[in-house]
Amino acid sequence: MKTNNKKSLYNGGNVALLLLKMRTFIALFIILGFFSLTVDGFLAPSSLIIMIKHISINAFLALGITFVIITAGIDLSIGATLGFCGMIAGYLISNSLIIEPLGIAIFPSVWVVVPVVIVIGGLIGALNGLIITRYKVAPFICTLGTMYIIRGAAMLLSGGETFPGLQGNPELGNTGFDAIGAGYLLGLPIAIWLMFIMAAIIAYIAKKLPFGRHVYAIGDNERAAELSGIKVNNVKVWVYTIAGLCAAVAGIVVTSQLVASHPATGTAFEMNAIAAVVLGGTSLAGGRGTIMGTLIGAFVIGILADGLVMMGVSEFWQMVIKGLVIIIAVIIDQMQNKLQYKAAISSQKLAS
């Protein structure tokens, strides 16, 4: 009888653990069901495409910092990086690069602007990684500091002003930037295609490449990973570099959609991204998380935000609800950790 009781308790724990692991999908279906009943035309194809287009911005950031959080780190500078990279794109399209010795001015094409901006985002992320690993600065403090530096740099670039009208000039050969945010491919916005492509690439890295396994190993036990031969500092630098690259892509898409760049763009975006990652099942303690979970978490946060707007809910209440979602997500994460620990202990007892 005692053995049967133990087995029933063990199975009950497994069911609860399974429900916690599937919490993001459950939350997504509940939210979709609720808004479809309360908002007319919520599930109309046109509405869904617009919502997914909005979601893609948060998804870019969330996908980028998933690896960071799996290593038990954090990056508060991704929102500022988004804004700064958008300003760089705006500056390059609005202003010429003057080469004084030759007496010429160059207006870079979109094919030059986009790679340059992405590289700059990656360099910002790499700088975060180097400061964290080389000088042993806590990720929270380091990225909080760089957040202010990057935001200030964005303000200095234009004196706090906006770079408007980024459609470019056909005579200068720098048109096409607005197509990134407003263009369509096979009936879907380019931003949505970029989101799914980025998710597929990062998921492949996480599942198929040694780098992905190293990221999980560091988050699970950094000291053990180091003793096993993993170059922990190198992996961490690359992890923050990926976050910077993804933030740059998000900055390009946002700036393209607005056809203008403002230094304050991306303010507090990092909070939505972190919420999506945690809601998607990635543990803040490190060592656990999936790219698919992050993507679904971004959908939950995005659909919740757009649904509240369509219902006419006050922006102030939206902030309260988002805050509650973050707190609940962290509480559920802690519950999952405890249940996993108890399940492991129970399985060991049953085996013995």
TrEMBL record:
Membrane topology recorded in Swiss-Prot or TrEMBL: Multi-pass membrane protein
Positions of transmembrane segments: 60-93, 105-130, 137-159, 179-206, 237-260, 266-284, 291-310, 316-332
Protein family: Belongs to the binding-protein-dependent transport system permease family. AraH/RbsC subfamily.
The organism's place on the tree of life at top rank: Bacteria
Protein's name according to its UniProt entry: Erythritol ABC transporter membrane protein
Chief location: membrane
GO CC annotations on file: plasma membrane
Originating organism: Marinomonas rhizomae
Locations listed in the record: Cell inner membrane
Keyword Ion transport included in the entry's annotation: no
Keyword vocabulary terms for this entry: Cell inner membrane, Cell membrane, Membrane, Transmembrane, Transmembrane helix, Transport
InterPro entries given in the database record: ABC_transp_permease (IPR001851)
PANTHER family for the chain: ABC TRANSPORTER PERMEASE PROTEIN YPHD-RELATED, ABC TRANSPORTER PERMEASE PROTEIN YPHD-RELATED-RELATED
One function term, GO molecular function aspect: transmembrane transporter activity
Pfam families: BPD_transp_2
